[in-house]
Design brief:
The chain has helices at 10-13, 16-36, 63-70, 87-95, 109-119, 145-153, 189-204, and strands at residues 37-42, 52-56, 75-80, 99-101, 124-126, 156-165, 172-178. By secondary structure, the chain is of the alpha/beta class. The protein is globular.
Length: 206
């Protein structure tokens, strides 16, 4: 039975069944993604068992499976409601402990509540601060709620640089770079967002 957040209740998020589905999906995606992409993370960070927000730049629909593949821990994604309209895909998203956000509502209380519930269980939450894909490689406007969620959950933010380059045949080269950790135990949410923006701009200026 689902709770009021519209996804699998938190008591099932960490179940053996959920973990089996998640890691079985990773095995399939690892095979499928490597057919089309050549990727290797740089400045790789071993994540401990504490709650953390991964904040990648958003360049492609493929960002989601690629981030899931390069991170050893189970990732919980906040996905746009528009991309989980398909019943089967929505079922998979919910089964692995991820959830959707309704951007048309502006601030989505249900999504924020789900994010905090995930982080309070010391999980890895993946948020795309730009909110939408920027295929031209520029930096989009950042969603300020990222810092507020991190502060409420008392966790840090790890920015991730993402970029795609043409490769041999149809295999694109994907650059995944883990940037400097942003600690959120000091400063206002605006100051934290400024640090996050500076991190992205430094990456993009290379």
């Amino acid at each position: 039975m689902k709770d009021t957040l519209g996804y699998v209740p938190s008591k099932n998020i960490n179940s053996n069944y959920t973990l089996r589905v998640y890691y079985s999906s990773k095995k399939f995606l690892n095979f499928a993604v490597k057919i089309f992409f050549n990727f290797k993370p740089t400045n790789f960070v071993e994540l401990d068992d504490k709650a953390i927000i991964l904040a990648p730049l958003h360049r492609s629909f493929w960002d989601i499976p690629i981030i899931g593949l390069v991170v050893d821990r189970q990732c919980h994604f906040m996905a746009r409601k528009e991309i989980v309209k398909n019943f089967l895909f929505k079922k998979v998203v919910h089964t692995v402990g991820s959830f959707e956000i309704d951007r048309e509502r502006g601030v989505d209380p249900k999504a924020i509540k789900a994010a905090l519930k995930t982080l309070k269980k010391n999980r890895v939450l993946v948020l795309f601060p730009e909110g939408t894909r920027k295929k031209d490689g520029s930096l989009g406007d950042l969603f300020p709620g990222v810092a507020r969620i991190a502060q409420k959950a008392n966790c840090n933010i790890l920015p991730v640089g993402m970029s795609y380059e043409k490769g041999r045949f149809f295999r694109k080269k994907v650059n995944v770079e883990f940037l400097k950790l942003i600690e959120t135990d000091s400063g206002t949410s605006d100051e934290i967002m400024t640090r996050l923006k500076n991190s992205y701009e430094s990456y993009l200026s290379k």
